[in-house]
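Tutorial, part two.
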Amino acid sequence: MAWDETAAWLSGDDNQPLYGQLLQEATEAPQRNAGRKKIIRPQEMPWEMSRQGILKHLINEDMNTRMETVDAYMQIIPAGSRSGRHRHLAEECLYVLQGRGYDEHQDCDVEITDTYHWKPLPEIQRFEWEAGDVIYVPPNTIHQHFNADPRRPVRLISAINRIYRHSGLNDLEQLDDAPEYDPSVTLDEETVGRYLAGPGTPA
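Running the prediction step on this input gives:
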C-alpha cells in the first residue's frame, strides 16, 4: 500500500448508501415491473406534433412500460410531404407500414476526442422504399423521409435503442422541421384524420 497517500484517501466525511440503493433497486425490481404495462392500447399511445413530424409514440421510457432498451413511434407523413431532417448518433430502423417514398441520407465524418465534432460529407444518397420494406439509418447519418405519393399518406414505425442516451450520447440534432410542424396544434383522431385526407394543414 502506498502509505504516503494515506492523508489524501482518508480525507472526507461524506457518507451515502449508494451501493445499498443499487441493491434495494434490484430487490424491488420484480414488484415494480409487475405494475408496468406489457400491453399498450392505442388510446394510451400519446400523439406528438414534433419538429420531425406527426408521431404516435408506441413505446417510450416515460410511458411506464416493461420495455427497458428501445423507444418506438409511428410516423405519419401526409400525401406529398416529408419528415423533418435530423441526425443522431444511434442507428435506427423503420418499417414501412403504408405508402411509398424515399430517404435521403448524408454521411458525416466524426471525430471524438475530449469534444465531439461532425462534418457532413458532400454526397447525398437516395433510397427508395414502399410498404413492407425496412429502412436502415446508420449511426450519425443526416436523414429525411419523403412521401412520393401525392394522394396517400405514409406510415412508418421507427425503433431506436435508448442505451445511447443513457450512456451520455444523446446526440440528437434537428436540422429542418417537417412542413406540418406547428407547436400550437393539438393532435387527436379528428385532427390527424384531416392530415391523412390530403395535403396541407387542417383548417
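The chain has a mean pLDDT of 91. In part three we will examine how such features are distributed along the chain.
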